[in-house]
Write a structure and sequence with these properties.
This protein is mainly alpha-helical. It is built from three helices and two strands.
Length: 94
């Protein structure tokens, strides 16, 4: 049988053990008055920024990749479209 109190849910300050991550976060916030870092995408809370970054890469990586893909931006953000639009302003003045 798996131990419900894994080391990743132990408080590093007082060694209290918790069965899940959420209970550990509540404990740290209330008992040790630590600032909690929140994921901007889903609201999940973390004790350390490094854990939030790991979570974001693992859980939201595909969405982040799509946002950074040029083809997902509207034409107005496409470099060639911007150049063409700029040139059209001046082409009739030549």
């Amino acid at each position: 049988m798996k131990n419900p109190f894994s080391k990743k849910n132990n408080c590093i300050q007082c060694e209290a053990k918790f069965s899940n991550h959420e209970d550990l976060v509540v404990h740290v916030r209330h008992e040790h008055h630590k600032t909690i870092v929140k994921c901007q995408k889903c609201g999940k809370e973390f004790i350390h920024e490094k854990d939030r970054l790991h979570h974001a890469r693992k859980e939201h990586e595909e969405e982040m990749r799509e946002r950074s893909n040029r083809s997902s931006y509207p034409d107005e953000y496409n470099t060639q479209s911007r150049v063409d639009k700029f040139r059209s302003r001046f082409s009739d003045k030549l």
